[in-house]
Amino acid sequence: MPTPFFVLEVALSGLLAGLLYSLVALGFVLIYKASGVFNFAQGALVLLAALVFVRATEIFDAMGPATVGFWAALLATMAVMVLVAAAIERFLLRPLVNQPPITLFMATIGLTFLIEGISQMIWGSRVYTLDLGIPDEPWIIHGLYIGKIDLFAAAVAIAMVIALAVFFQFTRIGRALRAVSDDHQAALSIGIPLNFIWVVVWSLAGMAALFAGLVWGAKLGVQFSISVVALKALPVLILGGFTSIPGVIVGGILIGVSEKLAEVFVGPVVGGAIESWFAYVLALAVLLVRPQGLFGEKIIERV
Amino acid sequence: MVPISTQGQGDRSERGAPALLEVANVEVIYSHVILVLKGVSLEVGKGAIVALLGANGAGKTTTLKAISNLLKSERGEVTRGSIKLEGRSTTDVTPHDLVRQGCIQVMEGRRCFQHLTIEENLLTGAFARSNIGKSVREDLDRIYQYFPRLKERRKSQAGYTSGGEQQMCALGRALMSNPRLVLLDEPSMGLAPQVVEEIFDIVGNLNRSTGVTFLVAEQNTNIALRYASHGYVLESGRVVLDGTSDQLLANDDVKEFYMGLSGETRKSFKDGKHYRRRKRWLA
């Protein structure tokens, strides 16, 4: 029988891993909320952001002290992500305006290959190391092991979610974003410029991708398989709801914790390796009971 | 029947002041093949309420969308003719800039943002304005004076309010952009007669007190002509009749086809259809 302490340790590691998923899922939610499109390219954006950051760090490190270099690289990468967002709006979204969501979804699949291909041309396929200056050694609190990077990631995820929730709820542009997600045409008719809104949304998704890329890159190294972690975000989205920003956090935690607990307690019964598919089964169960997710917007239907 | 001249608001053009909105010979084609408007011309004078009448599919909504430049996002295109707002062509103006110039459309079916509260809906209407902050607050209070019911419901999600409240919300949202011309599409749709009366009453009051011009597309001919000073009747993408409201209300065709009143002898429906078809070719 496992001790409560062991259960706690497993749950905690799951919680931190789950918040890492949340970070990736956040990018999906932003774009889905504003355009009703599932952005398949989010994983590729994570990869791109990490690669750009690595290159920018190299350049700025050569020029000055390391601490300045980090922030300069961060700002430069943010600028690049905004430019990428503007380019996507101009060359992908604008020509496809008013097409059904499935067309846009297909376009984002194409975008994935484009981004990965271009990245490979520029950076090759080797694994880059990304150093955030956080030592890869755990804190030990009363015998509990907590990875410092995990903790950093959790803090970043929560901070981003709070910042975005405030932005969406209380600012003029955030309100316009929600309006666009409710009804494009009506938003257009009252003078909300959709092109501008899309650049904002994709830029925000780019920022989310950047932070996800930093954390995952620091943990695993910056490599092409990073874009696959995006798939881990899928069950998080289904659980938390595609349209809810706070839902991303809760969904991430639930997936992370249940996945780790299942691995430890159910795994031995079915022969292990449950972690790789448990999240998807959980998502399936949620779809059956509550299709909009735990926190998704309720579909309002007046009778 | 009484022939009606097509110089609708002739007295105004004689004085030389340009109308607020001039639509001349506009032809609209959807998806490159479907011809919907076949040369529609109309004029809306400053401070007027003008009704755009006609049955389903006559082209009322398309006319309004051609004016507000919302056709492009629906694969529609103005292929001929010109639309001028205060003498300036609106062809290449984005809906955003058009709203800034004072022309805004309230779409058919209200189209409130369902998940936003009533107040948030109203505030989105001010998005295109350049002056933000205090004056937006003042305008919000002004809207609440026109629509006291919206004030009561300001914290509820628009999706959960009644049809009449949503229509008020959509109208209020448009007014938040400080418009000079409101294109109001089918405000009576799906509303109880009493509520329709209430909405038109508000439109009439707004027009008198603030001088906002309205172009109202309506199927409910009776009520639209009671509030409007002029009317245009569309049929299959053409203007077949126009004139002052009194002229139109007195017109036998309008009475028969759009208000369900017939003259002294009751004609059979079959004859009526035949008659109407002939009339269209003559027009």
UniProtKB/TrEMBL annotation, chain A:
Keyword terms: Amino-acid transport, Cell membrane, Membrane, Transmembrane, Transmembrane helix, Transport
Transmembrane segments: 6-30, 37-56, 68-92, 104-123, 151-171, 192-216, 236-257, 264-289
Principal location: membrane
CDD domains referenced in this protein's UniProt entry, alphabetically: TM_PBP1_LivH_like
GO terms (BP aspect): amino acid transport
Location relative to the cell: Cell membrane
GO cellular component term, pick one: plasma membrane
InterPro entries with a match to the protein in the record: ABC_transp_permease, BCAA_transport_permease
Membrane topology according to the record: Multi-pass membrane protein
Pfam families: BPD_transp_2
Tagged with keyword Nucleotidyltransferase: no
Molecular-function GO terms, alphabetical: transmembrane transporter activity
Family to which the UniProt record says this protein belongs: Belongs to the binding-protein-dependent transport system permease family. LivHM subfamily.
Identification of the protein by name: Branched-chain amino acid ABC transporter permease
